[in-house]
């Protein structure tokens, strides 16, 4: 039994192989941005309001398909590395919690099987094979996904030194189930190399442009969210091509090492685009207080990633999401916020 969402990392460490722990926990380069994400969240202070007569809070988020709280399960690859049921178990927990689950292009179960468990979004990496991309979009629509999230910050995979040093490769029973080349170089360990990085290098298209994003916008009727934006100028461009949402994200510190912390980039992106689309944020969210911090800085909602993978590893997804909800409700009560709109009006500062 955990007391907070952060407890699951230690619990998972007792049951996972060290290379899998490193694959989930690690960042790129010297992991500067990985650590900066947490430091930036911890530096945000909130000024609570008092005497509001509040005895309960409304955490309901109305955007896109709607949710019981402003939380979305982030897209994360190869979840069968952590539990045999992988994505299916975490998606069911998200459905029971009343929040969207984002299916990764690199999920280890087919997207149709995951989407059948509850409200789902689909995350799309830009692939060299455009026909395969079109097929994935069609499949996501047919499976009932209610939003399409395109990740734009991976022209190449960041150099993740833990995986390089571990010569990390996927076990035979964990595959990229949505891709036709499920049995790939991702399973072939080579000393001093990451097999997962080798696979993405062969599958992902590095030369993606705004024109490509315009094509994708024209290709689907689903609301389009653009994930991986940190510069407000890019946020403006995303709005111009018709994005319904922006995810302010540095990929959890796994892409450009030295990139700005997502929570630090959030306010400028909100100022640039927030009146025209929903602005979400990820990278470093570890508690209900972090969710409240993000809302106070202008976010519509947050994406939560690693903590839920650690919970998945110990078969505690539902418990973890329940703890996150309790933490958010407590934080809102203590801050004097009856609803999300009030949370967005809180005054913030910096330590």
UniProtKB/TrEMBL annotation:
Q: What's the name of the protein?
A: 4-hydroxymandelate oxidase
Does Thylakoid show up as a keyword for this record?
no
Regarding protein family, the annotation reads: Belongs to the FMN-dependent alpha-hydroxy acid dehydrogenase family.
InterPro entries recorded: Aldolase_TIM, Alpha-hydoxy_acid_DH_FMN, FMN-dep_DH, FMN_HAD, FMN_hydac_DH_AS
Q: Name one Pfam family in it.
A: FMN_dh
* Superkingdom of the organism of origin: Bacteria
PANTHER family named among the record's database cross-references: 2-HYDROXYACID OXIDASE 1, S -2-HYDROXY-ACID OXIDASE-RELATED
What are the alphabetically sorted keywords of the record?
Flavoprotein, FMN, Oxidoreductase
Ranges where the FMN hydroxy acid dehydrogenase domain occurs? 1-351
* Membrane keyword on record: no
Q: Which cofactor does it need?
A: FMN
């Amino acid at each position: 039994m955990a007391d907070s969402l952060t407890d699951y990392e230690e619990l998972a460490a007792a049951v996972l192989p060290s290379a899998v722990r490193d694959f989930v926990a690690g960042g790129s380069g010297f992991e500067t941005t990985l650590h900066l994400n947490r430091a930036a969240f911890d530096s945000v202070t909130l000024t609570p309001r008092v005497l509001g007569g509040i005895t309960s809070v409304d955490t309901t988020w109305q955007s896109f398909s709607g949710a019981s709280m402003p939380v979305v399960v982030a897209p994360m690859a190869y979840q069968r590395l952590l539990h045999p049921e992988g994505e299916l178990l975490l998606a069911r927990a998200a459905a029971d919690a009343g929040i969207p689950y984002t299916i990764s292009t690199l999920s280890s179960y087919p997207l149709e099987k995951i989407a059948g468990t509850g409200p789902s979004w689909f995350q799309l990496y830009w692939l060299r094979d455009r026909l395969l991309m079109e097929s994935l979009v069609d499949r996501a629509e047919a499976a009932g996904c209610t939003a399409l999230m395109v990740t734009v910050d991976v022209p190449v995979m960041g150099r993740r030194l833990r995986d390089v040093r571990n010569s990390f490769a996927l076990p035979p029973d964990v595959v990229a189930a949505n891709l036709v080349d499920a049995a790939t170089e991702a399973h072939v360990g080579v000393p001093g190399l990451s097999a997962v990085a080798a696979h993405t290098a062969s599958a992902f298209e590095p030369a993606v442009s705004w024109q490509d994003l315009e094509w994708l916008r024209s290709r689907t009727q689903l609301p389009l969210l653009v994930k991986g934006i940190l510069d407000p100028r890019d946020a403006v461009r995303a709005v111009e091509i018709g994005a319904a949402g922006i995810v302010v994200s540095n990929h959890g510190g796994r892409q450009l090492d030295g990139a700005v912390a997502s929570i630090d980039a959030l306010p400028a992106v909100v100022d640039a685009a927030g009146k025209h689309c929903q602005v979400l944020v990820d990278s470093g969210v570890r508690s209900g207080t972090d969710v409240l911090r993000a809302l106070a800085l202008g976010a519509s909602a947050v994406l939560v990633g690693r903590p839920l993978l650690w919970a998945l590893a110990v078969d505690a997804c539902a418990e973890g999401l329940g703890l996150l909800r309790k933490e958010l409700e407590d934080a809102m009560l203590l801050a004097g916020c009856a609803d999300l709109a009030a949370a967005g009006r809180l005054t913030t500062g910096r330590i």
